[in-house]
Amino acid sequence: GSSCDKCDFETNLCKAVHGLNGWIRRNGQSDMGPPYSDHNGNESTYFLSLSSEMGSSSATLRTNVFLPTGEEHVCQIRFHYWISHMSGTLMVGLQKHSEDTVTNIWQVSGELQNQWKENTITINSTEKYEVIFWGMVETQRQDETVAIDDITFSEGC
Q1: Which of 79, 23, 16 lies closest to 48, judged by CA?
Q2: How far, in Å, CA of 56 to CA of 45, rounded?
Q3: Total domains present in the chain
Q4: Which SMART domains match (predicted)?
Q5: Alpha-carbon distance 149 to 118, whole Å?
Q6: In what helix (H) or strand (E) does residue 49 lie, and over which residues does it extend?
Q7: Which of 92, 90, 146 is CA-nearest to residue 114?
Q8: What tens digit of pLDDT does each residue of 4-40 get?
Q9: In a domain, 106, yes or no
Q10: Domain boundaries, position 46
Q11: In this structure, what is the dihedral angle of CA atoms 121, 123, 67, 146, given to the nearest 10 degrees?
Q12: Which residues on neighbouring strands pair with residue 6, listed in sequence order?
């Protein structure tokens, strides 16, 4: 389609992602520790974060299967993320159709001092693939978390 598919998590999941394995959809008012707002500073709009209350120390978010990218159709995925400064890690992986393993294509760990950041990943794949967002914290304290907001997929995805 001409428009990007955007997951802002306001209503639920978007078409491109499925399965909240360990992620919880919440907003800054949900009394679950930071972050206390989404990446625009809004306390009432929704994002995904690791659910410390459920005792979940890692979480996986998987996209649908995307078609191979071409020279005129590069897949770009833009997203906002928030990582607590102690022990949070967010990884983005690529799983190609013919492979069982997930190839890590981007990773960041908790030196970010509790603020929203933005990143864009460009994917080239000659075969069908899925993209996996994997968040993890080493300690299950309430202020230790990883969050994701506003994932946008370009036309090439």
Answers
A1: 23
A2: 22
A3: 1
A4: MAM
A5: 9
A6: strand 46-50
A7: 146
A8: 678 889 887 788 887 788 898 999 998 888 899 999 9
A9: yes
A10: 6-153
A11: -40
A12: 152
